[in-house]
Amino acid sequence: xxxxxxxxxxxxxxxxxxxxxxxxxxxxxxxxxxxxxxxxxxxxxxxxxxxxxxxxxxxxxxxxxxxxxxxxxxxxxxxxxxxxxxxxxxxxxxxxxxxxxxxxxxxxxxxxxxxxxxxxxxxxxxxxxxxxxxxxxxxxxxxxxxxxxxxxxxxxxxxxxxxxxxxxxxxxxxxxxxxxxxxxxxxxxxxxxxxxxxxxxxxxxxxxxxxxxxxxxxxxxxx
Length: 223
Known about the structure:
2 domains, elongated, 6PGD_dom2, 6-PGluconate_DH-like_C_sf, branched-chain amino acid catabolism
């Protein structure tokens, strides 16, 4: 292991990553190995298109970062040095907490607007040029048919499973409790994803299936 570089792309709790990193880096006194957390974002589409985002637990001036950046560039287009050990995970958990909340809020808003009589594509277009716009709305809108190429228009098959969103939301909330960060929406969001993960009509499907769990109207998608 001496002199080797170890990279962990898992999404786990920062404390565990720090413990593993310490065990790795102290395993050899001569030419000690290096360890980096480097969780990714972008899902299956990002992996297939090599457009993933890497959040690397390293300082920008870390001598190893240029090498890591070169390697990750084969799989991603955005490689971010987050500052130091476990901070890649801190960024990933913060991102997934935000992403999950945006997806849930978009699902609620789409369901509201449609039940008030709006066409889902018209409503989504309104969001795109208004303050409610987001990557979720424009790229993977929870309503089937709004984004024809998205997993949400294929019965929510594939993508980022709702159980994984439940897991990441749990990790984010636990991390917030450890550092005293107040999360007003956290418990409600976790409850929604937990219920969706336990629902047989939603389990094992993309996390945006939370729209189905809400009882959202699902237009028929033309094949």
